[in-house]
Amino acid sequence: MEKNLLYFGKSNLFQPLQTLSFGDFQVAIREGELLYFRYQGEELIRRIYVAVRDQNWDTVPNYISITHLSKNDQGFSVSFSAVSQKNEIDFRWQGTIVGESKTSHRGQLIFSMEGEAYSDFYKNRIGICVLLPASFAGKEVACHKHPRFGGYIEKKRLPDNIAPYQPLLDFSQLEIEIAPLSKLLLTFEGDVFEMEDQRNWSDASFKIYSTPLRYPFPVLVRQGERITQRVTITFETKRISSNPLGTLQMNSHRILVSSVATNQLPNLGLNLNEGMNGFDEKAKQILCVLKPSHLRVDVDTSLPFKAEEEKVYKATAISQATNIPLWFALVVTSPQELEMLFNMLPWEVTQRVLISRNRPPWDTPRDLVEETRRLMKKKALLRPLGGGTKGWFAEFNRQPPFLEGIDFVFFSVSPQVHAFDNETLVENLPTQETLCRYAQQISGLPVVLSPVTLSVHFNPNATEWEKRYTPPVPDPRQWSLFGMLWTLGSVKYASLAEALTYYEALGPRGVIPSPETQEHWQKHGYKMFQVPPIIHILKELKSKEGTKIVPTKSTNPLVIDALCLFEEPGYTLYVWNYSPHLQRVSVEGLTFRIEQGFTFDEECFEKLIGSIETNPRKWEHFTQKATTLDLLLQPCSVVKLLGT
């Protein structure tokens, strides 16, 4: 329990998976959901679960009790009961998961649920969700329409580019060609199903769900109403493989290092919207050492003017005290409000301006860009101007900004729009690269991810207006070793961006811990909690902005990953372990010799949280032979290797 506190910020945030093998198939089971259905190590299904979504699209927690589990070499069966409760919502259901290896080349999964409402409540969705891995992009699919919609077959490809709207609609069965001679058949019962491209929210998946989004919501569910659904998944192949590459990849941890440097490490900044009253001499010292490239401040005309004016005043004082420039994100109802904001802004410390609307479609239209440029010209201001959205890439993708007259585009990223477990957070990291690449393709302009947060900072889809701005509960992983590693992974995969804005600087979600955060750690005996581990990795990377990146590829990025930087005369290689277990890693393809090693891990945790000036401890658990490096990584740790 104590270890999990250091690793994940809270003892119950690590939820182990139970892995089951049957024939040539493998799955993982955890608390009423199925993860990572694989054939010979090749992923077929990312996840199957039941979601209850309230009228603001918040996910109602499922409390699961396993009632039965049986397994043998050819299959398994799990049955469980679940209670989904939050506020007025009380929905209770029974679930079963059955897996069977019919032959060495054919396997089947059945996931079913049957539930009943124990109260009256409003819902946006209740039912089974199936996630297909994002690697299925471009694969051929035969979409069998639901009988209610004619029952015909529509042949398409899953989108390579991120689809702004549902790529497949109104079906009861999908047949996907995974590879030549290999097909995946999914049959759905109990409702009409459709698919959305979850890469719009930085998820690494295509999601299949019911009921279609074009139907009115929220919907009143009456006490006693019953919901029953089932999905049957069959995989069949005629391929013959005695030693599949997928199995080797799944059971080994290898990092493959390229020989050619590509893009550069982006500029790194912080949000500055909460907790400004907590700016004191200690916070000033930390910010001056960390020296983020910018502090972003949102000014929203739909919020009380006096409060927003006070925010600008306080941000200006912080900028002047630390000599860190400000980015102002002006979120307005109409262009007529811009002149008032322009007169409010401290232009002497303002480095960039970001503009967007504070209501659907949350975009940057032409009249907003033209009025901003007119005011800049009137005041003789030369500042980079960004267009985009306070929302997710989904909003950007559906309504791109007016491009003529802006210098860069922006949107926000959070890995927890749909799910909240550690695996989801890590799964979704590579999608940040996809988002940057596709935003560049849409706009032809530099891309800024701003902000990047663990908890969602904003809910553009909430039915109740005030819920859109309700601050999320702070995620304790932000102050743990895992939070440090997730940030490293984010910088790696978002490195196509020109700049990144992370988290908050101050307040409950601040990288400079608030009194509430310090109190949480003091209760567990960590009296000297002054800075979280994440500060140290931000300081590390901030000092290397503009450094060239040497591409690396992990054979198991859910567990191990790496970032390699090149700057004359040598290399810096970071390798990290997301898991709470020791891991052996082989780094291959090195063109340089490792001279020194350092680490941030649980052994130096107390020193890390005591001061921003703490350095990583020396580390020597590596051996190098020619171009291959062998490492033994501690749980939830990162090693820093210097080479020439």
Descriptive account of the structure:
The chain has 13 helices and 36 strands. The protein is α+β, with helices and mostly antiparallel strands. It has 3 domains: 14-250, Distorted Sandwich (Beta-galactosidase, Chain A, domain 5); 254-259 and 548-643, Immunoglobulin-like; 267-542, TIM Barrel (Alpha-Beta Barrel), CATH 3.20.20.80. A hairpin with a 2-residue loop joins strand 7 and strand 8 (106-117). Helix 10 packs parallel to helix 12. It starts with a helix and ends with a strand.
**Largest sheet at a glance?**
17 strands, antiparallel
- CATH top level of the largest domain? Alpha Beta
Total domains:
3
CATH architecture of the largest domain: Alpha-Beta Barrel
What's the quick description here?
This protein has three domains: 14-250, Beta-galactosidase, Chain A, domain 5; 254-259 and 548-643, Golgi alpha-mannosidase II (Immunoglobulin-like, Sandwich), CATH 2.60.40; 267-542, TIM Barrel (Alpha-Beta Barrel), CATH 3.20.20. It is built from 13 helices and 36 strands. The two termini are 41 Å apart.
Topology readout:
Elements: H1 2-8, E1 18-22, E2 25-30, E3 33-39, E4 42-54, E5 62-72, E6 75-86, E7 89-103, E8 106-117, E9 121-133, E10 140-145, E11 153-157, E12 168-179, E13 182-189, E14 193-197, E15 205-209, E16 219-221, E17 226-237, H2 245-251, E18 254-257, E19 267-271, H3 281-290, E20 295-300, H4 305-322, E21 326-332, H5 338-344, E22 350-357, H6 366-378, E23 385-388, H7 393-398, E24 408-413, H8 422-427, H9 431-443, E25 447-452, H10 481-493, E26 499-504, H11 515-522, H12 533-542, E27 548-550, E28 552-554, E29 560-567, E30 570-577, E31 583-588, E32 594-600, H13 605-608, E33 617-618, E34 622-625, E35 628-633, E36 637-643
Parallel strand pairs: 18-31, 19-20, 19-26, 20-21, 21-22, 22-23, 23-24, 24-25, 25-26
Antiparallel strand pairs: 1-2, 2-3, 3-4, 4-9, 5-6, 6-7, 7-8, 8-17, 9-15, 9-16, 10-11, 10-12, 12-13, 12-14, 13-17, 14-15, 18-28, 27-29, 29-30, 30-36, 31-35, 32-33, 32-36, 34-35
